[in-house]
Fold this sequence. Notes:
Blueprint (H helix, E strand, L loop, with lengths): L3 H6 L1 H10 L5 H41 L3 H37 L19 E5 L26 H7 L3 E2 H7 L6 E2 L2 H19 L3 E3 L4 E3 H7 L11 E2 L4 E3 L4 H6 L5 E3 L5 E10 L18 E11 L4 H18 L4 E5 L11 E9 L4 E10 L3 H6 L2 E3 L7 E2 L1 E9 H11 L6 E2 L5 H4 L3 E2 L1
Parallel strand pairs: 4-9, 8-14
Antiparallel strand pairs: 1-11, 2-3, 5-7, 6-7, 9-10, 10-16, 11-12, 12-13, 13-16, 14-15, 17-18
Amino acid sequence: MLTLRLINEETERVVRGLEKKHFRGAAEAIAAVQATDRRRREAQQQLDQLLAESKKKAAEIGQLMKQGLREQADAAKAAVAELKERSRQLEAAMDEAQRQLTEQLCQIPNIPYDEVPEGSCADDNVVVKSNLRECQPGDTVGNWTANPVVEAARLPHWELARKYNLIDFDLGVKITGAGFPVYIGKGAQLQRALINFFLAEAAKAGYTEIMPPTVVNAASGYGTGQLPDKEGQMYHAEVDDFYLIPTAEVPVTNIYRDVILDERDLPVKNCAYTQCFRREAGSYGKDVRGLNRLHEFSKIEIVRIDTPEHSRESHREMLAHVESLLVKLELPYRILRLCGGDQSFTSAICYDFEVYSEAQQRWLEVSSVSNFDTYQANRLHCRYRPEGSKKPELCHTLNGSALALPRIVAALLENNQTEEGIRIPAALQPYTGFDIIT
Length: 438
Protein backbone atom coordinates (compact mmCIF):
# COMPACT_ATOMS: atom_id res chain seq x y z
CA MET A 1 0.00 0.00 0.00
CA LEU A 2 1.04 3.61 -0.43
CA THR A 3 3.03 5.09 2.44
CA LEU A 4 1.55 7.92 4.48
CA ARG A 5 4.76 9.86 3.93
CA LEU A 6 4.26 9.75 0.17
CA ILE A 7 0.59 10.67 0.47
CA ASN A 8 1.22 13.60 2.80
CA GLU A 9 4.37 14.96 1.14
CA GLU A 10 3.40 14.46 -2.52
CA THR A 11 -0.38 14.61 -2.44
CA GLU A 12 -0.83 16.10 -5.90
CA ARG A 13 1.45 13.52 -7.54
CA VAL A 14 -0.39 10.70 -5.80
CA VAL A 15 -3.78 11.98 -6.96
CA ARG A 16 -2.51 12.41 -10.54
CA GLY A 17 -1.10 8.89 -10.47
CA LEU A 18 -4.36 7.40 -9.25
CA GLU A 19 -6.26 9.28 -11.94
CA LYS A 20 -3.82 7.89 -14.52
CA LYS A 21 -4.80 4.45 -13.26
CA HIS A 22 -8.44 5.45 -13.66
CA PHE A 23 -9.12 5.08 -9.94
CA ARG A 24 -12.46 6.75 -9.30
CA GLY A 25 -12.67 9.38 -6.58
CA ALA A 26 -8.88 9.63 -6.20
CA ALA A 27 -8.84 13.07 -4.55
CA GLU A 28 -11.65 12.15 -2.18
CA ALA A 29 -10.00 8.87 -1.19
CA ILE A 30 -6.68 10.57 -0.43
CA ALA A 31 -8.43 13.35 1.54
CA ALA A 32 -10.23 10.69 3.59
CA VAL A 33 -6.91 8.95 4.36
CA GLN A 34 -5.36 12.22 5.47
CA ALA A 35 -8.34 13.05 7.70
CA THR A 36 -8.16 9.64 9.38
CA ASP A 37 -4.40 9.99 9.79
CA ARG A 38 -4.86 13.39 11.46
CA ARG A 39 -7.42 11.90 13.84
CA ARG A 40 -5.03 9.08 14.69
CA ARG A 41 -2.09 11.45 15.27
CA GLU A 42 -4.19 13.81 17.40
CA ALA A 43 -5.27 10.87 19.56
CA GLN A 44 -1.62 9.80 19.83
CA GLN A 45 -0.54 13.28 20.94
CA GLN A 46 -3.26 13.46 23.58
CA LEU A 47 -2.38 9.97 24.77
CA ASP A 48 1.30 10.87 25.07
CA GLN A 49 0.38 13.94 27.11
CA LEU A 50 -1.87 11.93 29.42
CA LEU A 51 0.76 9.24 29.93
CA ALA A 52 3.36 11.88 30.82
CA GLU A 53 0.91 13.52 33.26
CA SER A 54 0.01 10.14 34.75
CA LYS A 55 3.68 9.30 35.26
CA LYS A 56 4.24 12.65 36.99
CA LYS A 57 1.23 12.13 39.28
CA ALA A 58 2.39 8.61 40.16
CA ALA A 59 5.76 10.01 41.24
CA GLU A 60 3.98 12.61 43.39
CA ILE A 61 2.00 9.90 45.18
CA GLY A 62 5.18 8.34 46.54
CA GLN A 63 6.44 11.67 47.82
CA LEU A 64 3.09 12.50 49.48
CA MET A 65 2.99 9.11 51.20
CA LYS A 66 6.50 9.63 52.54
CA GLN A 67 5.40 12.99 53.93
CA GLY A 68 2.36 11.43 55.57
CA LEU A 69 -0.05 13.45 53.45
CA ARG A 70 -2.50 10.60 52.92
CA GLU A 71 -5.47 12.71 51.79
CA GLN A 72 -3.43 14.45 49.08
CA ALA A 73 -1.99 11.05 48.09
CA ASP A 74 -5.50 9.57 47.77
CA ALA A 75 -6.58 12.53 45.65
CA ALA A 76 -3.54 12.03 43.42
CA LYS A 77 -4.40 8.30 43.10
CA ALA A 78 -7.93 9.21 42.02
CA ALA A 79 -6.51 11.65 39.46
CA VAL A 80 -4.17 8.93 38.11
CA ALA A 81 -7.09 6.49 37.84
CA GLU A 82 -9.06 9.09 35.87
CA LEU A 83 -6.07 9.71 33.61
CA LYS A 84 -5.74 5.97 32.99
CA GLU A 85 -9.41 5.72 32.02
CA ARG A 86 -9.06 8.64 29.62
CA SER A 87 -5.92 6.99 28.26
CA ARG A 88 -7.81 3.75 27.62
CA GLN A 89 -10.46 5.69 25.72
CA LEU A 90 -7.81 7.44 23.63
CA GLU A 91 -6.06 4.12 22.93
CA ALA A 92 -9.35 2.68 21.71
CA ALA A 93 -9.95 5.75 19.53
CA MET A 94 -6.41 5.54 18.16
CA ASP A 95 -6.74 1.81 17.42
CA GLU A 96 -10.05 2.41 15.62
CA ALA A 97 -8.50 5.22 13.58
CA GLN A 98 -5.56 2.95 12.70
CA ARG A 99 -7.97 0.17 11.65
CA GLN A 100 -9.90 2.58 9.43
CA LEU A 101 -6.65 3.98 8.03
CA THR A 102 -5.37 0.54 7.06
CA GLU A 103 -8.72 -0.34 5.51
CA GLN A 104 -8.72 2.88 3.48
CA LEU A 105 -5.14 2.40 2.29
CA CYS A 106 -5.87 -1.16 1.19
CA GLN A 107 -8.56 0.12 -1.17
CA ILE A 108 -6.15 2.49 -2.95
CA PRO A 109 -3.97 1.07 -5.76
CA ASN A 110 -0.33 1.78 -6.41
CA ILE A 111 0.50 4.84 -8.50
CA PRO A 112 2.21 4.33 -11.89
CA TYR A 113 5.64 5.60 -12.84
CA ASP A 114 5.86 8.64 -15.12
CA GLU A 115 6.82 6.54 -18.17
CA VAL A 116 3.60 4.52 -17.93
CA PRO A 117 1.48 5.63 -20.92
CA GLU A 118 -1.94 7.19 -20.56
CA GLY A 119 -4.85 4.94 -21.47
CA SER A 120 -7.94 3.22 -20.16
CA CYS A 121 -7.78 -0.33 -21.57
CA ALA A 122 -5.65 -2.96 -23.31
CA ASP A 123 -5.99 -1.24 -26.69
CA ASP A 124 -3.98 1.69 -25.31
CA ASN A 125 -0.94 -0.42 -24.40
CA VAL A 126 2.21 0.40 -26.34
CA VAL A 127 4.35 -2.02 -28.35
CA VAL A 128 7.96 -1.39 -27.34
CA LYS A 129 9.60 -4.32 -29.13
CA SER A 130 8.76 -7.23 -31.39
CA ASN A 131 10.48 -9.78 -33.58
CA LEU A 132 7.66 -9.47 -36.13
CA ARG A 133 7.59 -7.27 -39.20
CA GLU A 134 5.51 -4.09 -39.44
CA CYS A 135 6.19 -3.14 -35.81
CA GLN A 136 7.45 0.28 -34.87
CA PRO A 137 8.21 1.27 -31.26
CA GLY A 138 5.28 3.27 -29.94
CA ASP A 139 2.63 1.45 -31.96
CA THR A 140 -0.55 1.00 -29.98
CA VAL A 141 -2.08 -2.42 -29.69
CA GLY A 142 -5.35 -1.36 -31.26
CA ASN A 143 -3.60 -0.36 -34.49
CA TRP A 144 -1.50 -3.51 -34.76
CA THR A 145 -1.47 -5.54 -37.97
CA ALA A 146 -0.03 -9.01 -37.40
CA ASN A 147 2.50 -10.37 -39.84
CA PRO A 148 4.39 -13.19 -38.10
CA VAL A 149 7.71 -14.42 -39.41
CA VAL A 150 6.50 -18.03 -39.39
CA GLU A 151 4.81 -20.15 -41.97
CA ALA A 152 1.05 -19.99 -41.59
CA ALA A 153 -0.12 -22.57 -39.06
CA ARG A 154 -3.22 -24.50 -40.03
CA LEU A 155 -4.73 -26.09 -36.92
CA PRO A 156 -5.37 -24.52 -33.50
CA HIS A 157 -3.65 -26.20 -30.58
CA TRP A 158 -6.78 -27.91 -29.25
CA GLU A 159 -7.14 -29.78 -32.53
CA LEU A 160 -3.44 -30.59 -32.60
CA ALA A 161 -3.66 -31.86 -29.01
CA ARG A 162 -6.42 -34.24 -30.06
CA LYS A 163 -4.68 -35.29 -33.29
CA TYR A 164 -1.41 -36.18 -31.54
CA ASN A 165 -3.03 -37.37 -28.26
CA LEU A 166 -1.21 -34.75 -26.16
CA ILE A 167 -3.97 -33.19 -24.04
CA ASP A 168 -7.42 -34.51 -23.12
CA PHE A 169 -9.73 -31.62 -22.28
CA ASP A 170 -12.84 -33.82 -21.94
CA LEU A 171 -11.13 -36.11 -19.45
CA GLY A 172 -10.27 -33.05 -17.35
CA VAL A 173 -13.96 -32.08 -17.33
CA LYS A 174 -14.85 -35.60 -16.16
CA ILE A 175 -12.30 -35.58 -13.34
CA THR A 176 -12.71 -31.97 -12.19
CA GLY A 177 -14.40 -29.56 -14.59
CA ALA A 178 -13.68 -27.20 -17.46
CA GLY A 179 -10.27 -25.53 -17.28
CA PHE A 180 -8.44 -28.54 -15.79
CA PRO A 181 -6.85 -30.40 -18.73
CA VAL A 182 -5.11 -33.77 -18.55
CA TYR A 183 -1.71 -33.95 -20.29
CA ILE A 184 -0.85 -37.30 -21.84
CA GLY A 185 2.31 -38.94 -23.18
CA LYS A 186 4.47 -36.47 -25.07
CA GLY A 187 2.10 -33.70 -24.00
CA ALA A 188 3.06 -34.39 -20.38
CA GLN A 189 6.73 -34.74 -21.36
CA LEU A 190 6.59 -31.38 -23.12
CA GLN A 191 5.20 -29.78 -19.95
CA ARG A 192 7.98 -31.28 -17.83
CA ALA A 193 10.61 -30.31 -20.40
CA LEU A 194 9.48 -26.67 -20.37
CA ILE A 195 9.48 -26.56 -16.57
CA ASN A 196 13.03 -27.93 -16.42
CA PHE A 197 14.19 -25.64 -19.25
CA PHE A 198 12.80 -22.53 -17.57
CA LEU A 199 14.25 -23.47 -14.16
CA ALA A 200 17.65 -24.23 -15.69
CA GLU A 201 17.69 -20.88 -17.47
CA ALA A 202 16.71 -19.10 -14.24
CA ALA A 203 19.55 -20.84 -12.40
CA LYS A 204 22.01 -19.69 -15.09
CA ALA A 205 20.75 -16.13 -14.52
CA GLY A 206 21.52 -16.37 -10.80
CA TYR A 207 18.10 -17.14 -9.36
CA THR A 208 17.88 -19.40 -6.31
CA GLU A 209 15.16 -22.00 -6.71
CA ILE A 210 12.43 -22.17 -4.07
CA MET A 211 9.81 -24.90 -3.69
CA PRO A 212 7.05 -23.12 -1.72
CA PRO A 213 3.59 -24.27 -0.57
CA THR A 214 0.79 -23.80 -3.09
CA VAL A 215 -1.65 -22.97 -0.26
CA VAL A 216 -1.25 -19.76 1.74
CA ASN A 217 -2.91 -18.02 4.66
CA ALA A 218 -4.82 -14.75 4.43
CA ALA A 219 -1.84 -12.74 5.74
CA SER A 220 0.22 -13.86 2.75
CA GLY A 221 -2.56 -12.90 0.33
CA TYR A 222 -2.78 -9.52 2.01
CA GLY A 223 0.99 -9.00 1.92
CA THR A 224 1.28 -9.16 -1.87
CA GLY A 225 -2.05 -7.43 -2.56
CA GLN A 226 -4.23 -10.31 -3.74
CA LEU A 227 -6.41 -9.67 -0.69
CA PRO A 228 -8.69 -7.86 -0.38
CA ASP A 229 -8.53 -6.96 -4.11
CA LYS A 230 -8.82 -10.37 -5.81
CA GLU A 231 -10.47 -12.72 -3.31
CA GLY A 232 -13.20 -13.48 -5.87
CA GLN A 233 -10.58 -14.88 -8.26
CA MET A 234 -8.90 -17.13 -5.69
CA TYR A 235 -9.94 -20.60 -4.59
CA HIS A 236 -10.68 -20.45 -0.86
CA ALA A 237 -10.51 -23.39 1.56
CA GLU A 238 -12.99 -21.89 3.98
CA VAL A 239 -12.66 -24.34 6.90
CA ASP A 240 -8.95 -23.54 7.35
CA ASP A 241 -9.12 -20.06 5.80
CA PHE A 242 -6.40 -20.96 3.30
CA TYR A 243 -6.13 -19.84 -0.33
CA LEU A 244 -4.79 -21.73 -3.35
CA ILE A 245 -2.11 -19.55 -4.88
CA PRO A 246 -2.78 -17.73 -8.18
CA THR A 247 0.99 -17.39 -8.69
CA ALA A 248 4.24 -18.29 -6.89
CA GLU A 249 4.69 -14.56 -6.34
CA VAL A 250 2.53 -14.89 -3.24
CA PRO A 251 4.44 -17.50 -1.18
CA VAL A 252 7.91 -16.52 -2.43
CA THR A 253 7.54 -12.79 -1.76
CA ASN A 254 6.03 -13.55 1.65
CA ILE A 255 9.25 -15.29 2.66
CA TYR A 256 10.45 -11.74 3.30
CA ARG A 257 7.40 -10.55 5.26
CA ASP A 258 8.48 -8.88 8.54
CA VAL A 259 12.15 -9.31 7.58
CA ILE A 260 14.95 -6.72 7.65
CA LEU A 261 17.63 -7.52 5.07
CA ASP A 262 21.16 -6.15 4.85
CA GLU A 263 21.84 -3.97 1.82
CA ARG A 264 24.85 -6.14 0.90
CA ASP A 265 22.49 -9.12 0.44
CA LEU A 266 20.39 -7.34 -2.20
CA PRO A 267 19.10 -7.95 -4.74
CA VAL A 268 17.52 -11.20 -3.59
CA LYS A 269 16.79 -13.34 -6.67
CA ASN A 270 14.41 -16.29 -6.32
CA CYS A 271 12.55 -18.48 -8.79
CA ALA A 272 9.88 -21.10 -8.23
CA TYR A 273 7.89 -23.63 -10.20
CA THR A 274 4.34 -24.14 -8.90
CA GLN A 275 0.89 -25.05 -10.00
CA CYS A 276 -1.31 -21.94 -10.07
CA PHE A 277 -5.03 -21.76 -9.45
CA ARG A 278 -7.42 -19.07 -10.70
CA ARG A 279 -11.18 -19.13 -10.70
CA GLU A 280 -11.31 -16.79 -13.73
CA ALA A 281 -14.88 -15.84 -12.82
CA GLY A 282 -16.77 -14.34 -15.73
CA SER A 283 -14.52 -15.83 -18.44
CA TYR A 284 -16.33 -17.05 -21.53
CA GLY A 285 -16.18 -17.31 -25.32
CA LYS A 286 -13.29 -18.01 -27.67
CA ASP A 287 -10.71 -16.65 -25.22
CA VAL A 288 -11.19 -19.71 -22.99
CA ARG A 289 -10.85 -22.42 -25.65
CA GLY A 290 -8.18 -25.05 -25.17
CA LEU A 291 -5.22 -23.75 -23.16
CA ASN A 292 -6.09 -20.08 -23.58
CA ARG A 293 -7.51 -19.70 -20.06
CA LEU A 294 -7.26 -22.40 -17.39
CA HIS A 295 -8.20 -22.75 -13.74
CA GLU A 296 -5.04 -24.74 -12.98
CA PHE A 297 -1.74 -24.39 -14.79
CA SER A 298 2.04 -24.60 -14.36
CA LYS A 299 4.23 -21.51 -14.15
CA ILE A 300 7.77 -20.51 -13.27
CA GLU A 301 7.96 -17.21 -11.41
CA ILE A 302 11.00 -15.00 -10.84
CA VAL A 303 10.97 -12.68 -7.81
CA ARG A 304 13.39 -9.99 -6.74
CA ILE A 305 13.77 -7.92 -3.58
CA ASP A 306 15.94 -4.88 -4.17
CA THR A 307 16.91 -1.38 -3.11
CA PRO A 308 15.01 1.60 -4.54
CA GLU A 309 18.19 2.77 -6.30
CA HIS A 310 18.74 -0.52 -8.17
CA SER A 311 15.20 -1.81 -8.75
CA ARG A 312 14.82 -0.30 -12.21
CA GLU A 313 18.00 -2.05 -13.33
CA SER A 314 16.63 -5.26 -11.83
CA HIS A 315 13.45 -4.75 -13.83
CA ARG A 316 15.42 -4.36 -17.06
CA GLU A 317 17.38 -7.53 -16.29
CA MET A 318 14.16 -9.45 -15.68
CA LEU A 319 12.70 -8.24 -18.97
CA ALA A 320 15.85 -9.32 -20.80
CA HIS A 321 15.69 -12.75 -19.15
CA VAL A 322 12.08 -13.37 -20.19
CA GLU A 323 12.79 -12.17 -23.72
CA SER A 324 15.76 -14.55 -23.98
CA LEU A 325 13.45 -17.49 -23.22
CA LEU A 326 11.12 -16.60 -26.08
CA VAL A 327 14.08 -16.13 -28.43
CA LYS A 328 15.44 -19.57 -27.52
CA LEU A 329 12.01 -21.11 -28.06
CA GLU A 330 11.95 -19.47 -31.51
CA LEU A 331 8.50 -17.95 -30.94
CA PRO A 332 7.07 -14.79 -32.51
CA TYR A 333 6.62 -12.33 -29.66
CA ARG A 334 6.09 -8.71 -28.73
CA ILE A 335 6.63 -6.69 -25.57
CA LEU A 336 4.01 -4.20 -24.37
CA ARG A 337 4.29 -1.39 -21.85
CA LEU A 338 0.91 -1.37 -20.14
CA CYS A 339 -1.04 1.86 -19.92
CA GLY A 340 -2.28 3.19 -16.59
CA GLY A 341 -5.79 1.81 -16.98
CA ASP A 342 -4.61 -1.73 -17.81
CA GLN A 343 -2.07 -2.10 -15.00
CA SER A 344 -2.69 -4.32 -12.02
CA PHE A 345 -3.81 -2.91 -8.67
CA THR A 346 -0.35 -3.26 -7.12
CA SER A 347 2.15 -2.51 -9.91
CA ALA A 348 4.01 0.76 -10.52
CA ILE A 349 5.05 -0.32 -14.02
CA CYS A 350 4.38 -3.51 -15.96
CA TYR A 351 5.44 -5.02 -19.26
CA ASP A 352 3.54 -7.89 -20.87
CA PHE A 353 5.05 -10.46 -23.18
CA GLU A 354 2.76 -11.96 -25.81
CA VAL A 355 3.31 -14.74 -28.35
CA TYR A 356 1.44 -14.90 -31.61
CA SER A 357 -1.01 -17.68 -32.39
CA GLU A 358 -1.22 -17.86 -36.15
CA ALA A 359 -3.97 -20.50 -36.06
CA GLN A 360 -6.13 -18.30 -33.81
CA GLN A 361 -4.97 -15.04 -35.41
CA ARG A 362 -4.44 -13.47 -32.00
CA TRP A 363 -1.85 -12.63 -29.39
CA LEU A 364 -1.54 -14.72 -26.21
CA GLU A 365 -0.13 -13.20 -23.03
CA VAL A 366 2.56 -15.42 -21.49
CA SER A 367 4.23 -13.13 -18.95
CA SER A 368 3.83 -9.94 -16.95
CA VAL A 369 6.97 -8.44 -15.43
CA SER A 370 6.27 -5.80 -12.79
CA ASN A 371 8.02 -3.43 -10.43
CA PHE A 372 5.86 -2.69 -7.38
CA ASP A 373 8.12 -0.01 -5.90
CA THR A 374 7.47 0.01 -2.11
CA TYR A 375 3.76 -0.86 -2.43
CA GLN A 376 4.03 -4.55 -1.52
CA ALA A 377 6.96 -4.01 0.84
CA ASN A 378 4.91 -1.57 2.91
CA ARG A 379 2.20 -4.19 3.37
CA LEU A 380 4.78 -6.92 4.02
CA HIS A 381 6.99 -4.81 6.32
CA CYS A 382 9.85 -5.95 4.08
CA ARG A 383 12.79 -3.68 4.76
CA TYR A 384 16.55 -3.44 4.38
CA ARG A 385 19.21 -1.68 6.40
CA PRO A 386 21.38 0.60 4.21
CA GLU A 387 25.10 0.28 4.83
CA GLY A 388 26.21 2.74 7.48
CA SER A 389 22.67 3.38 8.68
CA LYS A 390 20.76 2.05 11.67
CA LYS A 391 17.34 2.99 10.28
CA PRO A 392 15.76 0.36 8.00
CA GLU A 393 14.09 1.43 4.74
CA LEU A 394 11.39 -0.18 2.62
CA CYS A 395 12.57 -2.50 -0.14
CA HIS A 396 11.28 -2.61 -3.70
CA THR A 397 9.68 -5.87 -4.84
CA LEU A 398 9.52 -7.17 -8.42
CA ASN A 399 8.25 -10.31 -10.11
CA GLY A 400 7.48 -11.84 -13.46
CA SER A 401 6.43 -15.05 -15.17
CA ALA A 402 9.36 -16.88 -16.72
CA LEU A 403 7.17 -18.39 -18.08
CA ALA A 404 3.52 -19.47 -17.81
CA LEU A 405 3.18 -22.79 -19.65
CA PRO A 406 -0.32 -23.10 -21.18
CA ARG A 407 -0.09 -20.45 -23.89
CA ILE A 408 3.58 -21.24 -24.51
CA VAL A 409 2.51 -24.82 -25.24
CA ALA A 410 -0.31 -23.52 -27.47
CA ALA A 411 2.11 -21.34 -29.45
CA LEU A 412 4.73 -24.10 -29.71
CA LEU A 413 2.20 -26.55 -31.10
CA GLU A 414 0.63 -24.12 -33.54
CA ASN A 415 3.77 -22.41 -34.82
CA ASN A 416 5.82 -25.60 -35.22
CA GLN A 417 3.39 -27.90 -37.03
CA THR A 418 4.74 -29.44 -40.24
CA GLU A 419 3.66 -32.18 -42.60
CA GLU A 420 5.80 -34.64 -40.61
CA GLY A 421 4.65 -33.55 -37.17
CA ILE A 422 5.25 -30.88 -34.55
CA ARG A 423 8.86 -29.72 -34.49
CA ILE A 424 10.55 -29.13 -31.11
CA PRO A 425 12.83 -26.04 -30.90
CA ALA A 426 16.52 -26.93 -30.62
CA ALA A 427 16.93 -25.35 -27.16
CA LEU A 428 14.18 -27.57 -25.79
CA GLN A 429 15.28 -30.88 -27.32
CA PRO A 430 17.79 -31.75 -24.54
CA TYR A 431 14.87 -31.56 -22.10
CA THR A 432 12.24 -33.42 -24.18
CA GLY A 433 14.52 -36.17 -25.47
CA PHE A 434 12.84 -35.93 -28.89
CA ASP A 435 12.95 -33.40 -31.72
CA ILE A 436 9.49 -33.96 -33.23
CA ILE A 437 6.04 -35.10 -32.15
CA THR A 438 4.59 -37.48 -34.72
